[in-house]
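On clarity, I found the account of how folds are encoded harder to follow than it need be. What matters is that the chain and its backbone geometry are given together, residue for residue. For the editor and my fellow referees, an illustration may be useful. For illustration, here is how one protein appears when written out as sequence plus C-alpha cells:

___
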Amino acid sequence: MKQTETSLAADPCAAPTAAVALFRSLGDPARLAILRRLAEGEARVTDLVTCVGLAQSTVSAHLSCLRECGLVVSRPVGRASLHSLARPELLDLLAAAEQLLAATGEAVDLCPTYGIPSATEESTR
C-alpha cells in the first residue's frame, strides 16, 4: 500500500495536508494555465508570459511556487531557464480532472461555493 493510501486508511475523515497543499497549488487559474502549457513541453518565462497574459514578475512568482511544491523544475540555457513539469504523474492528474469535469457537466461551475458566480450573484455582492 502506498503512503498516501495508508494515511487515508488511517483516518478517512482527515484531509491529508500534502493533498490540500497540492490542490491549493493547482487552484490558481494562472498556475493551472502554466502547468497546462508545460504539459506540452518546456518553456521559457517569456513563452509563459505570452501564454497566460500576465506580467513577467507574476509568472516568475507562480513558477517559484510551483517549483517549491515540486511540480516544476527548471534548467539554465544560456541566460534563460527552461521550465518543465517535474513529474509525469501530473499529466495523469490533469487528465483525470478533465474526465471528472466532463462527467459532472456544469455542476462544478454552478457550485455556489467554488463555481463561477452568475451575473445575479455578482450584482448582489
Notes: The first strand starts at residue 72 and ends at 77.
